[in-house]
Amino acid sequence: MDCCWKEGRCSCRASRAGRPRMVLGGLMVVIGGMAAPAAARADDMAEIRALHAEMQRLEAKVQQLEARHGMASGGSHVLAGRTLRSGPRSSASSTSVTNPSGQISAMPDLSRLTIGGPALSDDAQAAAAAENTMTESIVPSQPKLDLDSSSPLAITQAGVDSLPPIFRIGGVSVRLGGFIDFSNIYRSKNLTSGPATSWGSFPYANSPNAHTGEYRPSAQLTRLSVLLQGSPTKDETLSGYIETDFGGAAGTANSYQTNSYTPRIRQAYMTYSNTKWGFHVLAGQAWSLTTGYTQGLLSRHEQLPPVVDNNQIPGIVFTRVPQIRFIKDFGRKWWLGLSLEAPQVAYAANGGRHAMLTGASDDTISSSDTTLLYSNAGSGMLNPNARYSMDVAPDIVLKGALDTKPAHYEVYGLARWFKAMAQAPGGPIREHVSFAGGVGGDVTVHVIPRYLQFTGNVLAGQGIGRYGPAMLPDATFRANGTPAPIPEIIGSMGLIGHPTSNLLVYLYGGVESAGRRTYTGADGYQYGYGVNDLALASCDVEQISGGSCDAQTHTIADLTVGGWWHVLQGGYGAVMTGVQYTYLRKFAYKGGDGASPTTGGNTIYVTFRYLPFQ
C-alpha cells in the first residue's frame, strides 16, 4: 500500500510493485520479490534476518527523533488527533509533523537527499552508519542535548556527531553543527582582549590599565562545524571535519562601525578508521594529542573544560595545530597514539636589557655580545606582523590510555627541538639545537555516574610553556647562543556536576609555573629567565605613561567557577545560557632590590547561545 497526505487526509492505494514495502525513519528496504533459486534461498533468508535486525535498530532511532520533535513514538504516529500507521514513502518523500497550531505540515526528508554521484543502496547506508563511524560507536545519538558528560560536546565541540545527516552527496553523509554565541565580558583590569583572555598579560600597578576595568561584548565565538563521512567498506570510514569561528582579526578589524572580524580555522582535518584492525589516522589541524580525552583517543572526544573563555583557563594543557596522528585501539579499552605536530617556540625577552634576546635583527649591540637569529617575520600566507621560530622537527607526542567503567587514564611523553643561529664577535655563524620536552598525564573519574566527575591533568618538563593558556616562555639562551629550555609545570583539577538534566556546574583550579634558566655575563649581570638582580621597584609605581617594569613571570594561578543552564529545546533547536567567574593571580620573580611584583584580577562572562542543529 502507498499512503500520502492530501488536503489534511490520508489516502492509500495499492502499490504498483508486486511486493510489500516497509519504511522506518526514512530508510526504504525492499523485501521479497521474485522466487529465488533453491541454492540462493538460504542466503536470502539470512539477509532478511539481518534487515529485520537493522529495522529494529532504526525503529528505536525513529522513536528518539520523534520524542525530540514532540511526536509520538512506536509503530503508530499520533498526529493532530489521528492515529496513522507507518507507510512507505519514495526517495522524495516528506514526513508529516504537527505544528504548534495543531495542523499537519510537510517536512522534507533531507537525510535521503542525494546530490550528484552514485548513491549507496539503503542497506549499505544503514550498515555503514551502524558499524563504521569513528565516533558514533563510542557516543550514540542522544534524544536531546546531553549535559551529563564532563566535557559536553554541545558546549566544547558543537556536538555534531550526535546529530543526524542533513543530506548526502553520493555516498557521503553531511552533518552540520554549531551555535550563535553572544558573550558579555567584564575584566577588573583592562587587557584590551577579546573573548580569549590573555591570562599572562594582566598588568602590574605601574600601568594605568591596572587601575581600570573593561567591558567587552562579542559574537566572535559563534561557531559552525561540518562533518562529512563515507564508508568504502563495512569496516572502513573516511571522514572530514571543519570547525570555524570568527576569532580572526585582520589589519582592518576594529570596533567603530563594523568590527570586520574574520573567520578562522579552529579545526580542519581528515580521518581514516578501520574498526576491524582498530587502526585510526588523522591528518590536519586538530587539538593536540597532549590534550586530555573523555574516553579513547579519537578526535572530538577531548576532555576540554566546559568554560566560556576561548583561551580555556590557566593549567589546561592544549594546542590546536596541524598534525598527523596514528591511533591503535585494543578492544576499545587500551589505546596507543603517536602524533607529529607543527612546532613553534616562544622565546623569553629579558625586558630589553640584553640585546640578543629582543628578537630584532637590527639591535644595537656591543662588540662583546653574541648576535642571534632565532625567528623571522612571516611571508607568503603567514602573518607578516608576527615572528615565526626556526624549527627543526615536529613536536612528537606518544600517549597511552586506558578506559575502565569508573575512570579514564592517560600518560604521555612530549619531545621538542629548538634552533637558533649565533655568531660570536669575529666568529663564524653557528647553528645551535637543543632538546626539550616533558611527561604528562590525565584522568577523568566518574565520582557519581551522571552526576559528578573529577578531572585532572599535569605536564612537567622543559620548554613546554607553549602548551599552557598563560603562554609562559618556552626557552631563553645560554651565553654562546644555544637555546636554553625553561623548566615548567602546568596542571589543573576540576569538578563537574549535574544537579539536574538541564543544569551543569563546574569548579576548576589551575597553575602554570616557570623555573630559572640564567647565566652570568662578563659584565657581572645575570641574563636569561628568572634572574634576581633586576630593579623592580618601579613595577609598583603608578604612572600614566606606564613607566618601566622588567618583571619576569614566575607563576600564574587561577580559580574558576561557572555553569550552564539548558533553557529550551525542541524542533526549533536549543537555547543555553552560561555564567563564569575567574580569579587570577600573577607572581613575578623577586628583584635585586627586594621588590616582588604581584598582580591579579577578575573576569566575568555572561553568555547566551542558540544551537539550531541540536
What do you see in this structure?
- This protein is mainly beta.
- It has a single domain (122-611), classed as Porin.
- The chain has helices at residues 38-68, 122-131, 153-156, and strands at 2-6, 9-13, 21-24, 27-30, 76-79, 82-85, 94-98, 104-108, 167-169, 172-187, 214-218, 223-230, 236-248, 262-274, 279-287, 320-330, 334-341, 371-373, 375-377, 387-389, 395-403, 407-423, 429-448, 452-462, 475-477, 483-485, 487-500, 503-514, 517-520, 526-529, 553-570, 573-588, 598-611.
- A 16-stranded antiparallel β-barrel has the order 10-12-13-14-15-16-17-21-22-23-24-27-28-31-32-33.
- The radius of gyration is 29 Å and the shape is globular.
Uncertain regions spanning at least 5 consecutive residues: 1-39, 72-143, 350-365
- What is the name of the CATH class? Mainly Beta
Count of domains: 1
CATH superfamily assignment? Porin
Helix percentage range: under 10%
CATH topology: Porin
Give, in spatial order, the strands making up the sheet with the most strands. 10-12-13-14-15-16-17-21-22-23-24-27-28-31-32-33
From the alpha carbons, calculate the radius of gyration and give it in angstroms.
29 Å
Rounded to the nearest angstrom, the distance between the terminal CA atoms is: 34 Å
State the shape: globular
Number of strands: 33
By CATH, the architecture is named: Beta Barrel
Structure class: mainly beta
The residue-averaged pLDDT reads 82
Largest sheet: 16 strands, antiparallel, barrel
Portion in beta strands: 35-45%
